[in-house]
Amino acid sequence: MLLYETIAAAEAALGRNLTAAEALWFRYSAQMPDYLLYSHNLIFLFIVFTLVPLPLALLELRLPSTLVPYKLQPKVQLPPASFFKCYKDVMRAFLLVVGPLQLFSYPSIKFVGIRTGLPLPSAAEMAAQLVVYFLVEDYGNYWIHRLLHGRWGYEKIHRVHHEFTAPMGFAAPYAHWAEVLILGIPSFVGPAIAPGHMITFWLWIILRQVEAIETHSGYDFPLSPTKYIPFYGGAEYHDYHHYVGGQSQSNFASVFTYCDYIYGTDKGYRYRKAHLAKLKEQWATGGQNGEANGWNQNKKSE
């Protein structure tokens, strides 16, 4: 809820005219409690979880041949029942775990100083804060994920997420309820370190989930704009982690690749990539026949 009753009062306090975006924000949020504004996250998460994975899912179910050239594990064809079950389980976790976590975490959001008032942040400020959020979350997620691949953590918690050895977009948030809670912690650390505007926080929540869906999509599209992000892992990078499965000690990072490189947990992936590149070169020269493209041939433990 804003401190000003009218746009004129807001402009007088700021000493300038409101921008078009600020005027729109004023009209929308002036009389709305901050708690209700924060609760918009639930709407955004529901929309993202439902709509972002949907186009690829429909294409895979209706026109799978159009996607085969880009599918990372082309021999794995999931039945419609798997998509429906995955979405149903994700929505159950959304209602029972994610929703309450969002609602009860509001006091911490206010405590760290995430604001709802005017002025709105500049694009540069928002971009800088989002970079911090992604880097902090990625580092925390790396270590939690790596710990969950210990024997106890995997058998009791993380194995649920690995039920999909060939992941799909709907499976990005598919996990044990305890994992949903644990991995939610790093998402709040960045905003606590560099608190910004509620709009920046909304955008962070949306972008992080869209990124998770993209890396779990199971497809590697050559023209994807994410390929131009430095050190970005992407679908191919994370798909390998799911392909290897429970015994995987490779590619723990959620967004970027720098942690795996620094701590040496991408060696299996890099070896596999080099091996496939060598085979492709041999095929191109007519030297030998061998493995098909994708991770789904001659599964190994790295």
Give the SSE order as H and E letters.
HHHHHHHHHHHHHH
Strand percentage, roughly?
under 5%
Sheet having the most strands: none
Question: Shape, please?
Answer: elongated
- Helix/strand-derived category reads mainly alpha
Low-confidence stretches: 289-293, 296-302
Mean pLDDT: 91
Distance between the termini: 53 Å
Could you estimate the helical fraction of the residues in percent?
55-70%
Number of strands: 0
- Count of separate structural domains: 1
Q: What's the total helix number?
A: 14
What Rg is obtained from the alpha carbons, in whole angstroms? 22 Å
Transmembrane segments: 42-61
Family: Belongs to the sterol desaturase family.
Pfam families: FA_hydroxylase
Domain Fatty acid hydroxylase: 131-265
Can you describe this structure?
- With 302 residues, this protein is mostly helical.
- The protein has one domain (33-284).
- Helix content is 59%, strand content 0%.
- It is built from 14 helices and no strands.
- The protein has helices at 7-14, 20-29, 34-38, 40-51, 54-62, 80-104, 106-112, 123-148, 151-156, 177-193, 198-215, 234-244, 258-262, 267-284.
- Helix 4 runs parallel beside helix 11 and helix 8 (123-148) runs antiparallel to helix 10 (177-193).
- The N and C termini lie far apart (53 Å).
- Mean pLDDT is 91; it is low at 289-293 and 296-302.
